[in-house]
Write a structure and sequence with these properties.
Blueprint: H1 8-25, H2 33-54, H3 59-82, H4 88-117
Helix pairs in contact: 1-2, 1-4, 2-3, 3-4
Length: 118
């Protein structure tokens, strides 16, 4: 939980990495396993689609990839809400990651708005 990088590719990478660290420490429960797997997938997809957006074939492709990044950030936030825990250390990390997912959603929304006006 360091200062957030300005480089969005790096920030989305760190988000996915920190999600993986969180899920490794999360208390094992067979009922939560699917939620954890979904969270891992969506958190990694945020950055992967952002990288693809930067290599887009045109404006339409760029906007589509940004929309997918935004969607995956929202989905990550959803799965993180489902993984609330009573353990204070895990809960602190979970809350941090949920906030980061929300901030990434807002960033992608702003990028999308700017790309539609240009």
């Amino acid at each position: 939980m360091e200062a957030k990088p300005y480089d969005l590719a790096e920030r989305t990478f760190l988000f996915a990495k920190e999600v993986r660290e969180f899920t490794q420490q999360y208390p094992r429960n067979h009922l939560k396993l699917n939620d954890i797997q979904q969270l891992i997938r969506s958190s990694g997809s945020v950055g992967a689609n952002y990288i693809e957006a930067n290599e887009a074939l045109g404006k339409k492709d760029f906007r589509m990839r940004i929309k997918i990044s935004r969607k995956e950030a929202k989905e990550s936030e959803y799965w993180l809400k489902l993984l609330k825990t009573d353990d204070s250390e895990s809960e602190s990390m979970r809350a941090f990651l949920e906030k980061e997912a929300k901030e990434l959603t807002l960033i992608f929304s702003a990028i999308l708005q700017r790309s539609q006006t240009s």
